[in-house]
Amino acid sequence: MNRTLSNFLTMILFMGFVLGLAVVGPDMSPQQRCIKDTLAWTETRLFMGRDIHPSAGGGEVSDAQWQAFADAEVIPRFSDGFTVVDAAGYWKGEGCKAANLPGGCERTKVLLIQHPESDEADKKLEAISNAYRTQFKQQAVMRSDHKVCTQFYSG
User: Fold this and answer.
1) Cα–Cα distance measured from residue 97 to residue 118, given in angstroms and rounded to the nearest whole number
2) Could you give the CA distance from residue 70 to residue 142 in angstroms, rounded to a whole number?
3) Fewer CB within 10 Å of terminal CB in the chain, N or C?
4) Residue 1 sits in which domain range?
5) Cβ atoms 127, 29 nearer than 8 A
6) What is the mean pLDDT of the chain?
7) Neighbours of 65 (CB within 10 A)
8) Is 126 a member of any domain?
9) pTM for this one?
10) pLDDT band at 98 (very low <50, low <70, confident <90, very high)
11) What is the pLDDT of residue 54?
């Protein structure tokens, strides 16, 4: 093969590599981005509205009911820890009026759990979501997953 053709093919391969990086981006895997001594984990967020559908009697999941749910369904599955955030959510469901709360439609619990990615974790998260939907007559529980680099600072 002559030198001009060889240079041309090398240039084509290099351009393909560069274009591939542009399409894939630098976010190829969490292990490549996490700094030393951090864990490449997944953070799952479960968004759980607290309004009970009118066809199921209406009302709202109380703080005591939420705590009992967490005690029975969340803590046994993720006993190493999780975070619960109170939020105001919007949902397309019936009876949703923005005037219900300042800044939102219904009170919402956001459950944040960081965990190694696994089928076992997925099954636990699905069980929590299904239990919440069934127990409190919800139309849906929204799940959102994000890749994170996690590090624990302890004494």
Assistant:
1) 38
2) 17
3) C
4) 1-28
5) no
6) 79
7) 15
8) yes
9) 0.73
10) low
11) 79
